[in-house]
From TrEMBL:
Location of the Response regulatory domain: 2-122
Protein name as catalogued: Response regulator transcription factor
Residues with PTM 4-aspartylphosphate: 57
The organism of origin for this protein: Nitratidesulfovibrio liaohensis
Keyword hit for Transcription regulation: yes
Entry-linked InterPro entries: CheY-like_superfamily, NreC/VraR/RcsB-like_REC, Sig_transdc_resp-reg_C-effctor, Sig_transdc_resp-reg_receiver, Tscrpt_reg_LuxR_C, WalR-like
Length: 236
């Protein structure tokens, strides 16, 4: 198993390695680490080597961590990425998940939270901490207030412009544009193969977007997806 840690502070990288080494060897005794200090270096390493998890700082000296995240996910949507940030603000959280993050924790988090986040993501889940959940609640409230009384067929944000339409609220605010498009098409009865053809993606990639979206929405099957779609007017 191989992790990539992207942070321009050596002491932070060392601390993460020490924390992770305390528990990951139980499930991966062969764990190794790659380290990057810039976005450019991270992208080069990610292109050369398959990583089981990338731990990515949101503030890098040469580029935004969010932009780097988007690049990493564009090149490989199944690549697991955990965002590490000094920022608690809801806009960073929402943008991180819309860009494909599999988890988001702050650098002030306890080691136990890092452990839980890493474990959950390695199991294929999305990690949303209580701090992140609170930020999302704030963001959703602001969006619903901001969209009240404004025009536009979708209440504000276009479905393929970086996120989901206003009004869905809660965890749905975390959906990326592609995740939204996939579940909207699924809700309309399209198959994974049909969606892959329309979106010019592989069936495996479409399935990845579907799985991620349903996990974020806490939906476990097609029937629940259809009920969610009807309740919220999910559409293309």
């Amino acid at each position: 198993m191989r992790f990539l840690i992207v942070d321009d502070h050596a002491v932070v990288r060392k601390g993460i390695i020490e924390i992770v080494h305390d528990f990951v060897p139980d499930i991966a005794p062969d764990l190794t680490f790659d380290e990057a200090t810039t976005a450019a270096e991270a992208l080069r390493l990610a292109a050369r080597q398959r990583h089981d998890l990338i731990l990515l700082d949101i503030s890098l000296p040469d580029d935004s961590g969010l932009a780097t995240l988007a690049r990493l996910k564009e090149e490989d949507p199944e690549r697991p990425v955990l965002i590490l940030s000094v920022h608690r603000e809801d806009e960073y959280v929402v943008h991180a998940f819309r860009n494909g993050a599999d988890g988001y924790i702050t650098k002030s988090s306890a080691p136990e939270e890092l452990r839980e986040a890493v474990t959950r993501i390695l199991e294929g889940d999305v990690y949303i901490s209580p701090t992140v959940a609170a930020a999302l609640a704030t963001a959703a409230t602001g969006r619903m207030r901001g969209s009240a009384g404004h025009g536009g067929a979708d209440g504000g944000m276009p479905p393929y412009g970086g996120g989901v339409p206003n009004g869905l609220g809660g965890l749905a605010a975390l959906l990326s544009a592609r995740e939204y498009e996939v579940i909207a098409r699924l809700a309309q009865g399209a198959t994974v193969a049909e969606i892959a053809r329309v979106m010019n993606l592989s069936g495996k990639t479409v399935s990845t977007y579907k799985t991620r979206a349903m996990r974020k929405l806490n939906i476990t099957n097609q029937a629940e997806l259809l009920r969610f779609a009807m309740r919220h007017g999910l559409s293309m």
